[in-house]
Each structure stands twice: as C-alpha cells, then as structure tokens.
Write a structure and sequence with these properties.
Number of helices: 8
Strand content: under 5%
Shape: extended
Largest sheet: none
Helix content: over 70%
Distance between the termini: 50 Å
Length: 159
Amino acid sequence: MSEKAKKKLTPTQQEYQDFAQAREPKRSVLFNCVKAFFVGGSICLLGQFIQDFFIWNFDFTEKTAGSPTVAVLILISVILTSAGVYDHFGQWAGAGTAVPVTGFANSIASAAIEHRTEGYVLGVGSNMFKLAGSVIVFGVFAAFVVALIKTIITMLGGG
C-alpha cells in the first residue's frame, strides 16, 4: 500500500496493514519469472510439436499448419479448464500460462463455465465475451493500424 493511501487510514487500520504486511509470504520475483519463462516456453514447445505433427503426417506447409495447431492448443486448454486442471496449473505457473493463446482460451472457458447456470445467451454468451470482446476489438484495431501503416509505406515506395 502506498504511503499516501496509508495516511488516509485510521490508526487501527494502519496497525492492521502493518500486521498483515509483516505476515505476508515473501515472493521470489526471480523464481516466478524463471518459472513463467519455462512454463510459457513449454507450452510453445508443445505447439511446435503439434505443428510438426501436422507438417509430417498431413503434408501441411509451415504456413498452413499454423491454424490447426492453434485450434488444438485451444482445445487442450478448454478441456483442461473444464476438468479444473488448468486453473491449478495457472496458479502455480503464473504468467507463463496466461501469455500464450492457451491462457486466452482458459479465460473465456472459465467465464463460460462459471456463468452456465444463467443460461446460454445471458450467462455463457454475454459473460464469456466480457473479456474476449475487448481483446478482439483491440486486436482488430491494432491489425487495422498495422495494415494502414504498411499500405502507406508501400504507396510511398518504401516496401
């Protein structure tokens, strides 16, 4: 808690904040970064194995194997989320599971599972896209800006 926010607390609240802070477990930032690096890298390595499987067994090119690879990774993530495994793994691994596409699939599947009792439209559909909607909108907007910049550079003869 910042010192400015701490000044607004009553003496009892400040005492409790100090008490809680003294007993809070210390987190090793370096260990968490290394763990996230290796877990995220392992997920990407799994994706590479899946992509190689498509290339070797189905005569896909590296470019055409990308979409089915992502679909399989999303499917694995959703299955592990629905079984309750991915969330526990994510608690342990931290950001390493949140950054790849599997983390995005997990967040959407978790919202859908959590709100399924409210019905398919008002529960699953609307709550599932609370997170996904903003990501999709900003992704589409970023793609538009990049395409616009590339088009302008190409028109000016630079590419």
